[in-house]
Amino acid sequence: MAVTIKDVAKLANVAPSTVSRVIADSPRISERTKRIVRAAMEELGYHPNYHARSLANRSTQTIGIIMPSSGNTVFQNPFFPEVIRGISTKAHENGYGLYMTTGTTQGEINESVRNMVKGGRVDGLVLLYSRIGDDLIDFLLEEDFPFTIIGKPYKYQERIVHVDNDNFRAAKDATDYLIALGHERIGFVGGGLDLVVTMDRLLGYEKAMRLSGLTYRNDYVVHQEFLEEGGKEAIKTLMSVDEPPTGLVVADDLMAFGIVNALTEMGLSVPNDISIISFNNVLIAQLSNPPLTSVDIDIFQLGYTAVDGLFRLIKKEPPASNRVTVPHKIIERQSCAPML
Amino acid sequence: MAVTIKDVAKLANVAPSTVSRVIADSPRISERTKRIVRAAMEELGYHPNYHARSLANRSTQTIGIIMPSSGNTVFQNPFFPEVIRGISTKAHENGYGLYMTTGTTQGEINESVRNMVKGGRVDGLVLLYSRIGDDLIDFLLEEDFPFTIIGKPYKYQERIVHVDNDNFRAAKDATDYLIALGHERIGFVGGGLDLVVTMDRLLGYEKAMRLSGLTYRNDYVVHQEFLEEGGKEAIKTLMSVDEPPTGLVVADDLMAFGIVNALTEMGLSVPNDISIISFNNVLIAQLSNPPLTSVDIDIFQLGYTAVDGLFRLIKKEPPASNRVTVPHKIIERQSCAPML
DNA sequence: TTGTAAGCGTTATCAA
DNA sequence: TTGATAACGCTTACAA
Question: Cα dist. A176→A209, A211, A213, A273, B138 in Å?
Fold first, then answer.
């Protein structure tokens, strides 16, 4: 059996409560007693039991990370490691650890979130996605449980602390970039339509098209998963319409990469035949051939800031604002060319 | 205050212990009682408290992941997301969650591991690296705490369950591959010399060189961090010796990628001026220009199998073998050319 | 088949 | 400044 606070108390000739106070470095304990108790802890190799502590304390020093379903495929997209890097950096700065489960279905995810929350397993949650109609949000709000969202909540935006890019604007900028190069037949490749980020970017794209007097065509808009495969599927669809687009706004680098590869296989060239601008600016964007012009959304910062907000919530400090917008910027590389 | 087992007991008109048994689905409780209790749980929205449970139980249903120091930079290498993907898949299959802390220094890591272990925060540990002289291993062995290593332990190999590639052989294969292409001046770029994997691969490289009667030159061997930057540094050193190598065995794709880029900047071409074969076969290897010939080590499987072994340990099932070797294979792409 | 009661290892409250 | 003692919410002998 492990050594407990009682063993230490016995050895140090004090009460268990005193030991507890020494652990907490309470100012109401004499330096002398502290020394003695600490010596006893040292001698016995004492370490506080985490669960007993959390139970008495109602605090866990850990935050939960909720990923979109199928953690299995999610890690294939470099977005997630990078956002976790931001999260873990901030968490670590505050002595917090990270807990994550991966579920294959949304049902599994919901179940595991309920367990985390109701079971008191974590002090707060960061949601790495925002899906339209997600009932997790209602649940968390109802429970009054601290959480932040990376992305824009599909409702209750004033009530939910979230960190996001201005995706509408970013997509509009990206589209305008293509338009400025002289493109008129511009397509859009997004992720699932149930993701808020997809909607925002789609809207930004649409706005740019309309403002420039270009026609918005339904068959120029395709939705796929944020994976290389998704890109390949998307481009097949797009190239099969009459008068295929000459420019593409793609919501994810990995998808764009898939598109470039598929195009190359078809004997078409980027940017000579088709220009592509994508989102995220992960390493792949640099490595792609040609390197991709991509909208940098500062993924690390997204994660870091979300945790910052979460800590405020946990400490019940009212946040300055419920929404933090992380700036984006277009990184120009070689996947876009002017129309002749 | 949250709803507890007592509230449920009261509503269902049974003792708390009965409720507990229903949760555990004990066969010694009548179906009728189970129904009543479950209805009560439902009605009150009861969820068991995780910490109380773990405390009474001494089981946490979570496994800890230990990464090499500075989790901050570690996620930049795609090795880690991929290995975590394997880990999380297997963990999820068994209803386990993942806990991870990131430390900036080895001291911080050690401290947080001690806390996890002594504090009973996790049921077992997976170490994602193996460093020579790592005292974590002695600690864990001493505590008799379940853990597995991805890589080869630097000592006690018969006692520690670990999952590894045959890195000696893999490096020998890689070197032989270059030799078969006619290269004679072959360099080696590895990670930190304190990593066991580096040593194994270096030894394999050396063996191949000697067996083929080629000279092993100290100035052909360089060690750097497993990052793009590391690669750039390495190649600077290597190109400054007299008679620089014409072929390179590089222990990591990301490094190799850095090398290729640096070489390109110097006006040299891969594979025409220098052939490169690297390790890991992550996405970057495909994307690099030229695509890299790389030794696939099945990272996912490494993670998956390590957790499998860990569960055996936790359940005290003696494992078939303490060492599992995951097969490697060379994926040929376009970064190697024959010497003329 | 179910109830009683003693832990599990802390923290927090109230006295002293 | 310290000590008793009652929570915290659950599991598990031991009884019944």
Answer: 8, 10, 12, 19, 60
Q: For residues A278 and A333, give the distance between their C-alpha atoms in angstroms, rounded to a whole number.
A: 11
Distance CA A327, CA A170 (A): 9
Choose among B92, B308, B87, B61: nearest CA to A102: B92
Which pLDDT tens digit goes with each residue over B219-242? 999 998 877 777 888 899 999 999
The nearest alpha carbon in chain B to A96 belongs to B101
| Kind of pairing between the strands at B147-150 and B162-165 | parallel
Whether the bond between B16 and the residue before it is cis, its omega within 30 degrees of 0, is no
**Contacts of residue B78 in chain A, CB cutoff 8 Å?**
78, 81
Question: Each residue of A46-55: pLDDT tens digit?
Answer: 999 999 999 9
Instruction: Please tell me the predicted confidence (pLDDT) of residue A71.
Output: 55
pLDDT of B117 strictly over 90? yes
Task: Quote the CA–CA distance of A273 and A336 in Å, as a whole number.
Answer: 10
Q: pLDDT tens across A237-285, in order? A: 999 999 999 999 999 999 999 999 899 989 999 999 999 999 999 988 9
pTM for this model (two decimals): 0.91
Say if residues B59 and B121 touch (Cβ distance below 8 Å). no
Separation of alpha carbons B4 and B17, rounded Å: 12
Nearest chain B residue (CA) to A87? B72
Question: CA nearest A45: which of B114, B194, B276, B243?
Answer: B114
To the nearest whole Å, the CA of A214 is away from the closest chain B CA by 34
Which residue spans within chain B are E strands per DSSP? 62-66, 97-100, 124-127, 147-150, 162-165, 186-190, 221-223, 247-250, 275-280, 293-296, 323-326, 329-331
Nearest to B261 by CA among B283, B231, B224, B223: B231
Q: Which residue is nearest to nucleotide D5 (CA to C1')?
A: A17
- The first and second tokens of residue B145, run together, are 């705490």
Extract the residue ranges of chain A whose pLDDT is less than 50. Answer: none
Contact assessment for residue B331 and residue B295, using Cβ atoms and an 8 Å cutoff:
yes
